[in-house]
Design goal:
There is one protein chain. This protein has a four-stranded antiparallel β-sheet. β3 (about 125-130) and β4 form a beta hairpin. The longest helix is centred in the first third of the chain and has 26 residues, at about 5-30. By secondary structure, the protein is an alpha+beta fold. The chain has one domain (about 30-145): Roll (Nuclear Transport Factor 2, Chain: A). The protein has five helices and four strands. α2 (about 30-50) runs antiparallel to α3 (about 50-60) and α3 (about 50-60) packs across α5 (about 70-85). Helices cover about 50% and strands about 25% of the residues.
């Protein structure tokens, strides 16, 4: 028998899955999200190859201003030591910047991927993208949870 807390958790989980399922077709059809996702996947391929130099160079100015290339190389090496080599990645959804309250100026997209790594079967990868003045989407943030 489920207690009230377990029942609420199950209901919240079901609602979250339903909301994500409803949002995915819209995000998948949005040309800006599609282009941002394409760029993110290209960048993740470079990250997956442990090429810290190239992935750093391909990231946005904001990413490079937040950390040095050496700091990025160290962070990437630590992530690989903790998570292991990437095994799979599936697009899980996107949130456009105009959906964020109090967003800074600019075009932003946050992309979510369900991923599996050698040492961790279930990981949520988050890639935050910004459309730069040259019209190109570039990475401004990356996290694994």
């Amino acid at each position: 028998m489920q207690g009230p807390t377990n029942g609420r958790r199950a209901m919240l989980a079901a609602l979250s899955v339903w909301a994500l399922a409803c949002a995915l077709p819209v995000a998948a059809q949005d040309p800006q999200v599609s282009e941002a996702r394409r760029v993110a996947l290209e960048w993740l391929t470079v990250v997956d190859a442990d090429n810290a130099t190239a992935s750093y160079a391909a990231a946005a100015d904001k990413f490079r201003k937040a950390m040095t290339q050496e700091q990025w190389a160290t962070a990437l090496a630590q992530a690989r030591a903790e998570f292991g080599a990437p095994q799979r990645r599936t697009f899980a959804g996107a949130q456009k910047g105009d959906e964020f309250p109090n967003k800074p100026p600019g075009d932003f997209v946050v992309l979510f991927f369900r991923s599996g790594f050698a040492k961790r079967e279930s990981v949520m990868e988050t890639v935050t993208m910004e459309k730069e003045p040259d019209g190109m989407w570039r990475i401004i943030g990356y996290s694994l949870r």
